[in-house]
Every structure is written in C-alpha cells, then in structure tokens.
Design a protein that fits this description.
The chain is α+β, with helices and mostly antiparallel strands and about 150 residues long. About 30% of the residues lie in helices and about 45% in strands.
Amino acid sequence: MATISKSTEIACSIEELFAFHTDSNNIKEITPPNIKVELLNEDGQTYEGKVVQIKTTKFFIPTYWEVKIEKLQSPTILEDVAIKSPFKKWRHQHIFTHKESSCELKDVIEYEMPFGILGKIVEPLIRYDIEKMFAYRHVKTREILEGK
C-alpha cells in the first residue's frame, strides 16, 4: 500500500483539534472548493463503529464513500477505513499530539489503487491530488482553529 503523511502545527488545544475532527460537518469546511461534499447519513455523533456515508463530486463526477470509524481515542487518534470508495483499500489516521504551546495535526493515509496495472499507471496523478487536498485541509484547519 502507498502511504502519504502530512503534519502541521496549529496554535490550539489538543481538545479543540480533536473536537473539530470528530464533527463530521467540518469536512465541508476543509474540502477544496473544486470538490463538493455531502454527508448522506450524518447524525452529529462520532463513535467507534460508526459508518459515515459521503458523496463527493469533482468535475461533475459523483463518488460514493462509506467510511467506518475504526478507532477513536480521545484526544489523540481518529482512524477511519473505507468500506466503499474509489480505492481498493483506504485507511486514514488523524493523529493529534500536544506540543508546548500548540498541537500537531498529522494525517497518515494508506491506500491501494484498484484496476491492477492501470491503477499503478495513474497512481502518481492520484497521489499528487491526495497530497494537494490534504495540504489544503491543513491550511483551512489551521485558519479556522487559529481564528484567521
């Protein structure tokens, strides 16, 4: 599986950072403007075992995701795994670490492309797109939590 890791230091408490990420509605706030996100079954609660159904639309193409909250350890870890997605496998860890006067947000994404050799051919483009999306998410998260 391929792995992407992105870390950002944010001037907020670890509790604020964790709470922000456990509110599924915030995904809309940190998603790049060229991607539309709809939560199809949001009930406002996050707990281990919860399955979140998401519809994303990019370039007028809808994609449906079912993501299971596999691990929720307040206030340090939120881990989700795709049950249904465009990927053969998808695991996403949000790791929150308290620093002296801030916190570190670290996203670790492990994924495997579908479609065998065809997936391997397009993987560098997909990787670039994922990296770009998470860079945007980190900037927006920092802006929101630091009040900018």
